[in-house]
UniProtKB/TrEMBL annotation, chain A:
One of its GO terms (biological process) is L-amino acid transport. The keyword Repeat does not apply. InterPro entries: AAA+_ATPase, ABC_transporter-like_ATP-bd, BCAA_Transport_ATP-bd_LivF, P-loop_NTPase. SUPFAM superfamilies: P-loop containing nucleoside triphosphate hydrolases. The keyword Calcium does not apply. It comes from Rhodovulum steppense. This is Amino acid/amide ABC transporter ATP-binding protein 2 (HAAT family).
TrEMBL record, chain B:
Belongs to the binding-protein-dependent transport system permease family. LivHM subfamily. GO terms for molecular function: transmembrane transporter activity. The chain crosses the membrane at residues 6-33, 45-61, 67-89, 101-120, 159-178, 207-229, 241-266, 273-296. Keywords: Amino-acid transport, Cell membrane, Membrane, Transmembrane, Transmembrane helix, Transport. It comes from Rhodovulum steppense. This is Amino acid/amide ABC transporter membrane protein 1 (HAAT family). One of its GO terms (cellular component) is plasma membrane. It is found in: Cell membrane. It comes from the Bacteria. Coiled coil: none annotated. It is a multi-pass membrane protein. Pfam families: BPD_transp_2. InterPro entries: ABC_transp_permease, BCAA_transport_permease. CDD domains: TM_PBP1_LivH_like.
Amino acid sequence: MLEVTGIDAGYGPVQVLRGLSLAVRPGEITCLLGRNGAGKTTTMKAIMGLLPLSAGRITLEGEDIGRLPAHEVPRRGIGYIPQGRRLFAELTVAQNLEIGLMTRNSPRHVLARVLDLFPRLADRMGQRAETLSGGEQQMLATARALCLEPRVLLLDEPTEGLQPSMIEAIRQVVIRLKSEGVAILLVEQRLDAVLSAADRVVFIENGQVRETAGAVDLRARPEMLKRYLGV
Amino acid sequence: MEFGPYLMLAALEGAVTAAVLALMAAGLSLVFGVMRVVNVAHGEFYMLGAVLAFVVAGMAGGGALGFVAALVAVPLIVGALAVAADVTVLKRVGYDPERTIVATIGILYILQQVTLMGYGPDARPVAAPFNQRIALPWVEWGAGGPSLYWPWGLSITSYKLFVIGAAVVVLAGLWVLMTRTRIGLVMRATQLDRETAQAFGIPVERVYALVFGLGAGLAALAGVLIVPIQQAHYLMGGDALLLSFIVVIIGGLGSLPGTLIAALLIGLSDGILSVFFSPTLAKIVATLLVALVLVFRPQGLMGKAPR
């Protein structure tokens, strides 16, 4: 579905990704693992078109999206939940969701469906996003991305700093999306969450993919975690 | 005439200044708020508004019709020119905060000198479409209780009232645009987080071009409104730019309500101090206010401290 082939990308003169390749398949959770600075978030931003590619291709169902202007990428059906949530802090919950809906001109029933997944947001529609609790903010960031009815969902550390009940709520939603056939790319630090939910794990180091393993293999060979993550 | 009527006269003159200043500063504040661009050429868009008002009004045959034609057409022309400047200059320097300052200084001189070459160094007026003198009453406590009387010299023209009213209507419209419409939502999202806005399909560069055009259009509208009171001159942008910066710094960069409050404060103090003391003292006080704000509340009256 989403194919990243040999991309080079970085910030200005600083190259971060060096010939990185990976594939994200529908109905699967692909997890990016790596130490801090390995290039996980940079990969996400490169897919979203927020960083220019100096080499390589990114295709979504065969269409080359790697050279599109950044605002065209989400319109192809890629929902992005950035690290640190990146909500529009001074806008209300309803306005944040409205921006998600506007991305692909989603019909109104999409909003009802999203609020059905996160009923707590429905009670807070008029509240400014910055006044929500951390868990509610993460729900809103997720809900905003789901307003696109995405074919591919990119989640960058969705459980960072959340209490266990919130983590579980987010996890349930991700698993439900997977069962609906959404292709999911996940960056996550908490290994237990990854090992229980992911289908495939991609280890990256210095902006390159070192190894790709099925989650089943990984449970059989825990020494891989030690080698790439030091845990 | 006693003190009261004088004060009222000065306050009314100040309100006209405040109205024009609020329009202009709102444009400057919008451009800075959304694009983080300090537009040094903003005063020249105001000047172009005034100069083109003279040109367009002349072409349309002068009189009330000429003024209305200028009022409608000139902000659109200047807005389109600003969009062209955005796409050809500001976009090319990547909207970098420092480089856009230098770039807009360049635009300032280009606009000013082209106007000098084409329009000349003269100050030229445009006739107001209507200009009746309206005498205003004052309350007097006589033997039989309070009564109204019309002091000699206490008056305002209908055109000045129109300027105040037009500014109120346009600013209310701007407020509705920013808070109640989709395009306003898109502009605010771009202002709050440019990168995330792009990740949700907002064409940020098109929003920037629109905002730059809108900001310049507001300055041009202020220019058109002022020509029947002050004449159009190719150097008139300088003072207006300075006052707009003062207003925007006091109000808080990027805050529309703050801009309005500061425009009223500066406009009224300018009117009142100019009448009772001297215009120079008015400028001194305005500059002093900026200094005090920068020392004690650097984010401005309504601005938010950076988090």
